[in-house]
Design a protein that fits this description.
The protein has 173 residues and is of the alpha/beta class. It has helices spanning 16-27, 36-43, 53-65, 80-93, 107-114, 125-131, 155-171, and strands spanning 4-10, 31-35, 71-76, 98-104, 146-150. The longest helix is centred in the C-terminal third of the chain and has 17 residues, at 155-171. It starts with a strand and ends with a helix. This is AAA family ATPase.
């Protein structure tokens, strides 16, 4: 079985986890979700630093899932500065069968979305501003390899677009 990678990246509070869980729900047992926060915060309790312990286990989880499930969903901030090795690993492991998305939202929109989350009291707008990465794209602007998720799309519209992109990628076999 050939798996397709769906990578969702963006700033804290942008909606990556919400979308990833909704996409996983659509695919059911045909998808695995590898969430940076789960591995980094819940399994290892490590800081967001380059080559932290969670990175190695995330690589192993991706390797394990590839070929066993049709869809490997990977979501997180995954800043290029800290996770370039992991991101390069993903791009090499899925050279043709990948969908890469970046949540291209304003700081104000991410704060607004953060206020709707259960974790809204875990960190402040000021902390979010310190973490903020402006357009931390993997590919040069305008590259068709990275799709931008813009403000104004509903959860359903975003999920529908990812599902449609997935179906198109499957048909290109």
């Amino acid at each position: 079985m050939e798996s397709i990678l769906i990578l969702l990246r963006g700033n804290s509070g942008s909606g990556k986890t919400t979308i990833a869980k909704a996409v996983q729900h659509v695919f059911g047992e045909e998808a695995v979700l590898i969430s940076q926060d789960v591995f980094r915060r819940e399994i290892f309790c490590v800081k967001d630093t380059p080559n932290n312990l969670a990175s190695g286990l995330m690589k192993e989880a991706v390797l394990y899932a590839k070929g066993k499930v049709p869809v490997v969903l990977v979501e997180g901030i995954y800043s290029r500065e800290k996770y370039q090795d992991f991101l390069d690993f993903l791009m090499k492991l899925f050279p043709k069968k990948k969908l890469v998305y970046y949540f291209d939202l304003s700081f104000e929109e991410t704060v607004k979305r953060h206020q709707t989350r259960m974790q809204r009291d875990y960190f402040s707008e000021e902390t979010m501003r310190k973490w903020w990465l402006e357009r931390d794209l993997l590919f040069p602007k305008g590259s068709s390899e990275e799709r931008l998720i813009k403000e104004g799309l509903t959860i359903a519209e975003t999920v529908d677009q990812i599902i449609a992109d997935h179906q198109e990628t499957r048909r290109s076999d």
